Amino acid sequence: MIQKNEVYEGVVCGLGTEGEGIIKTEGATTFVPFCLEGERVTFKALKTDGSIAYGKLERVINATYSRVNPPCPVFERCGGCALQHMDYAAQLEFKRETVRTALKKIGGIDCEADETVACDRQYRYRNKLALPIGESDGKVVCGFYSPRSHRIVPVDDCLIQSEWIKPVIAAVKKFAAECGVSAYDERTGGGVLRRIVVREIKGKFIIALVVARDIRADSLIKELEKSFSDFTFLININGSRGNAIFSDNWRICRGEGRFDAEECGIKYEAGANTFLQVNDEVREKLYSRVIECADGDAVAIDLYSGGGMLTAMLAKKCVAAYGVEVVEEASRCADGLKEKNGLQGKMHNVCGKVEEKIDDIFRLTAGKKKIIVCDPPRKGMERSAVKAVKGAGADKIILVSCNPATLARDLGILCGTLKEESGGLIKTGRCDGVYDIQSVTPFDMFPQTKWCETLVVLEKNKRG
Predict the structure, then answer these.
(1) What pLDDT shows up at residue 243?
(2) Considering the entire predicted model, what is its pTM?
(3) Active-site residue 402, yes or no?
(4) Which residue from 42, 153, 209, 335 has the highest number of Cβ atoms inside 10 Å of its Cβ?
(5) How is 142-184 classified by DSSP, letter by letter?
């Protein structure tokens, strides 16, 4: 058996969902990050639990053709990217296989996934930054958390962020040093600076400094003005001890705090807390595919609709579109979006839980062809919501998911490969649900990371 702190040699026989190598040797299955399938490596055992172990890569004896040199100096220490050692073609295939494996192992669904839709830019693609601020050697630093911890790895740049990250970090560090402002300490609750958050929208910037208590940031704004012209600056006072980035306490210091913008033909107002996908290029590819799959002669019901961007796009193509969102503020933003785009009469925003509102909408639209579009949070749909969707009787369902595991669970219920028993889900061994899967397409929204978005199209079958 594998012994802790001992060094072993083995061949990587596959990759796990985190992108880590799987090595079977000495009667155990060991998970070792930063390995590639087919490589012979040595690793040090860090943790053992019976026949399962976790190790640290020591040396690559025989590298595969897919291995590349990671360009980031803090790769392996930062918890952001897990795949920089893997060439891009292999990353796309890894994500396709991750989706396919999750559907089979978790959802009991044996189907192929399309090739992953690639991103033209494998680096410098992110339009949003939410960077923790901390201290190292008595100085304020900005950085990212190391894997499975809140220990900050200091950085001056990040290769998956846009180039503007460099002057932002430099400005924050200079401000802290010259004004004697300390970083927030999660352990003690002392200090001030918590995060710097930036959103770029078509060359305009929304910059928010999150602080534990209110401060003056005039000198920081002046420093940012050396690198940015069209930006608004806000302070968010968040004195809580939790992990939420923002509180409800805002103060606008420069500009109006918001910008008017347009995306995919939809005019909207964006603020620091507005949700938009972080990759402009792949977001457009994903949303365009959703609209392409939506039938123009149908009523669209957009579940977990947020601020209404996708609802508005659906309203432009379909007979009508209903957006269902439980967060009141987001639903109000969707109403503003409707007015801004002249979609009165075609776009309807409903505030409430999916499982409580979907039947009402179906009754209102009785006799009309209906499609459901659903883009839930990472945790997936609530079990009650999946049941409501399954029982509603829509002609087509279009699912968007950023988590293959919860996607597989929800799809298994819809397709009948999973059923509830004794409070849990068991595999039925057959696909006898109301819906059949027409396509499964991963989109590489997050190059160099393990994450992807997946689009699934289901249609009601004759059995249903």
Answers:
(1) 85
(2) 0.95
(3) yes
(4) 209
(5) EEEEPTTS--EEE-S--TTB-TTHHHHHHHHHHHHHHHTPPBP
